[in-house]
Design goal:
Number of domains of chain B: 7
Strand order of the largest sheet of chain A: 8-1-2-11-10-9
CATH architecture of chain A: Beta Barrel
Oligomer: heterodimer
Strand content of chain B: 25-35%
Number of strands of chain B: 40
Strand order of the largest sheet of chain B: 2-1-6-3-5-4
Number of domains of chain A: 1
CATH superfamily of chain A: CheA-289, Domain 4
CATH architecture of the largest domain in chain B: 2-Layer Sandwich
CATH topology of the largest domain in chain B: Heat Shock Protein 90
Structural class of chain B: alpha+beta
CATH class of the largest domain in chain B: Alpha Beta
Mean pLDDT of chain B: 74
Low-confidence stretches of chain B: 210-214, 256-315, 517-527, 659-668, 743-758
CATH topology of chain A: OB fold (Dihydrolipoamide Acetyltransferase, E2P)
Helix content of chain A: 10-25%
Low-confidence stretches of chain A: 1-11
Largest interface: A-B, 25 and 26 residues
Amino acid sequence: MKSASIDEESTDSAVHKQLCTFWLSGRLFGVDILDVKEVHPKVEFTPIYHAPKAVRGYVNIRGQIHLILDLRSVMGFETLDETSDENCLVIFKSRVAEPFGVLVDKIGDVVDIDHEQVVEHKEQKKNLSDADYNHALTSGVCQLKDVLLVVINSRAILKSIESGTEEK
Amino acid sequence: MDFEKSIIEEFVTEAKEHLETVEDNLMQLEGQADNPDQELVNNVFRAVHTVKGSAGFLGLATLAGLAHTTETLLSLIRSGERKPDSKSVDVLLQSVDSILAMLDDVENSNDRDVSELIGKLQGVIDLDISPEAHESLDKQVELEDTQGRPSGFEISDHEFNDLLNEHEFIYVIKLNLTELSEKYQKDPISAFNQLKNLGDVVEAKLDPRAHDLRQGLPEGPLINEVLFATKLSREALANFFGMPEEWIEQFKKIEPDQAGQPPDTTAKDMETAPKEVSEVETAPETKNLDEEQSKWDGKDRRSEDKRDKWGSSERRRETIRLKLGVLDELMRLAGELVLVRNQQMMSVDKSEPTARANAQRLDIVTTELQETIMATRMQPIGNLFNKFTRVVRDLGKKLNKNIEITIAGSEVELDNTILEALSDPLTHLVRNCCDHGVESPEQRIAAGKDPTGQVKLRAFHESGQINIEIEDDGKGIDLDVIRKKALEKGVKTESELASLSDKDVLLLILTPSFSTADKLSDVSGRGVGMDVVKTSIEELGGTLDISSSLGKGSKVSMRLPLTLAIIPCLFVMVDEHRYAIPQANLEELVCLYDEDIITKVECAGSREIYRLRDYLLPLVRLNEVLERPEPLSESVRSEITEKYRQKQLEMSQRSAGSDGDGNEAGTGSTQSLNIAVLKIGVNRFGLIVDRVLETEEIVVKPMHPSLKHLKCYAGATVMGDGRVALILDVQGLAQHAEVAFEVSKADTTDLELKAAAEHQSVLLFASGEKEQFAIPLPLIRRIETLSIDRLEKIGNKEYITIDGVSTRVLRLEEHLNVSPCIEHEKMYLILPKHCRNQFGILVSRLIDSYETTVDLNVETYMEEGLLGTTIVSGKMTLFVDMDTMIRKSEPSWFDNRGFNSKAANAGKRILLVEDTPFYQQLVKGFLKSEGYEVTTADNGQEGLDMIDGGEFDVIISDIEMPVMDGFEFMKNLRAGTNQNDLPTIALTALNSDEDRDKAREAGFDRYETKLDKEQLLNTISKVLDSIATAKT
């Protein structure tokens, strides 16, 4: 039933969009809720040595191994070693990429936004090609009542660590 | 459109299944040429026939055409006109191959040219058959319907008669496919299959507008005309099939006087048909048809199953096809269930009987479920083995050899993935046996063997692995030929070959570009192969071995894991994290305790090594490797090695001093070092881990695609407690740690290279049973032989009288952490040069004197009384510092200068110009221990550069040096303006008055001979003192 309702909404996603929001270093970020599979409480990671810095490790979520990235590190914030109970994992759907998720400071609400509310980077930088656009980590910003919401392109998250390793 | 695609895919899979047994049957038929088993002939005929029908139906004209001609030949065999001799079977096999090939590439099958093959078939068909049969084949039968209109189909008289033996009516059914799917919800394939159940589809052709169904269904009604033979009347047929009667037209031969066909037997059929009609919807296979079918099906249960699939019968099916993805998902779920089970088992209250019983049942069921799912992936190896019957037969023909193949262990089951990957290597090996192994019949007779060669394929289980053996009784592998080839191809040199064992020579054929076939054939001998075979087997986690005896045959054996998805792994612990090491890479586990950790782990250059029996095992510390994302460089490796040396040294000192210190003793409990000996091919290395846990079977999950570049991991797995553990890639790990596998070899050659330019003679000797020691020969005055009972003990000191002088005897174990001296009747005493009071070092055995450049390693293992360590002939050798030793044991012999002036010397900079690394290190070592800061230069030129770059208090220089010698160096130095007053000391082995004068002329202030340490240190301090007084 639930999936059906989401599908209905997705049909007019051109106008309405729901974002799953979370906090990173005191700022609010959001990803398209249709990309999110679940929000999972933080569990213990299996560290992967040699992996890029942003990789926190592997976790097993119901029999499936997920790669967990520290979104703070991906976004260029300082990583927090001390983690509180509010930290949680946002796990993405398989249509986004191979099983992975991100560690965020705190989960926020689901926010309904109108398409016009989002100031897309693409509009700002018209000369960006589509490929560049897809690679850009943030796709736009959205002014909510009292806070600015940065929209993250969930498909670009993994690319950030891949390109990071290429540079090495 | 996906619809058509799926129809064609369905056809391909089905056709392949039909043809699966054909090859086998044909070969059996060949064996019984005189009296062919009718059952087999029917089976083959039916298979080809079905393919022909379906192909025509789908517009695959070329395929249908080839199948048709093949069928014609088969029908001759069926009717006994022809014998299934080897010629016919040959061409039939070829046709079946070709059909299979077209099925593999069905999209382009219509573009294929099969005319040659059809010609061949026709040739065999035309060959000496009876004229009547020939005529009946040639004569085309025109069919006409009741109104006398031609059918548009042409069949030969022979075929027609054949049909009428089985059936009574011939119809042309105009299937309106569009209507069929719209009105009756039947797709063409199911319609076609249903028709096949009702009779015999002789030929089918599509509406010319849609001659190629793959392009998509054309607009408007799509008509498929099917020439159909059956026993059913028109109405019955229409009823059974559920189509309008007007689609069906009855046909008969144009010649009305043709005998053999009752004009109208409808009445007879009608008697039975109506009875069945009511059942048609639910069970179209009526009794009547059942009889018909059982006749058709014979023993072939498989095809029966196929038919059931499309009919609506409730008959039991034995096999189904399903996607591997579904199985993988099932496997994953089962794995998850296991986890839940494990957690449940832990939480369950064992005291409560029902709960316990339930938990146990859950346990058992889960295990069985997992095993069953595993079993779904398993396939009997016979599926693969059987195809070699054909390979061997064909090759035998081609090479004019008589070869028989024996297959054993067909029932052994293997993971499907492995089975598929095995196909190519096995084919290659079998071909090799036929081509290189088995001789021609003449040669065999000459050798006194049975003219028929044997190739044996055998599979069996052994210790959780699958063993496969391919054996022939041919001429075996001639080692001399391999040696010759190896020389020719430059794989090995003559001397290298001489040192190889026969077994190693044999294994040379596994090296790339190595083929022993005298002439190239298209069967084998291109020189690519055995190495590829080896690689592919190893990729599967297996091993390959060859044995051969000349003139008797050869045998290739391989060992393979049962499955790739689940592998046994050893779990190890590093920093509280678990890692899995595939058991296939694990050779053995070594655990060292307490002092063995210090004494048995030696250092070679920047590496730690462990002497495992005769092998120098390079050691890799997993925790250090994991901490470093970049491959370990030379300097990083020495850093690591040094770190652990220090740690162990501290540890040993602590445990040595723990007697007096209670606190220390508590922590100084048993220390251990776990080494997992891992293998990569023939190479071994030791992985040091914190703890070794248990062995477990794990399900391998690949690494996340974003992390594929990490070479150290082979994958990950979910453990019993639900946590993830990484699987180590042994090969990647070794690469990352830059393990050099031939440590001893590499290092000695390196040393030898240097030795060509620089020689240093050292005396090798042993004191205790383990260590090897060395002292540079120039530092030894002489070696005295003595008998052990001449030693005199005063207090805890030992003395001996030599030349009337009482000499203090030192034992190495008194000062060094080494094994105690073994006492023999005859002992040796090494007396050093340059010592005021006489002392000697007691030695149990002199090993050798050795010419080498000594590159002393002072970083890895060091303790007071040593100059350093080095590797001499593959063994770690400790260089004894006699001076320090005697200082330690007899401090009163020396004045106070040495130890107390350390602080005063601090900050004094000495430039040491010396080309011999050994002396450089030696002098630098003791200068440093005196507190000086030492900079070294390898020759005069370097020395000058150094002086330009920094300030020094004293310069010590050798005289004989390459590039710029000591005289030149000094002249240049003194010629400079600002360094005239810098004190300089010549330190040289030259000891003539002439040299002394020359040195003084050049500008040296002092002159010292190599190497009286005491004297040199005194001189240095005097020089420095004089400067200090001059300044004040």
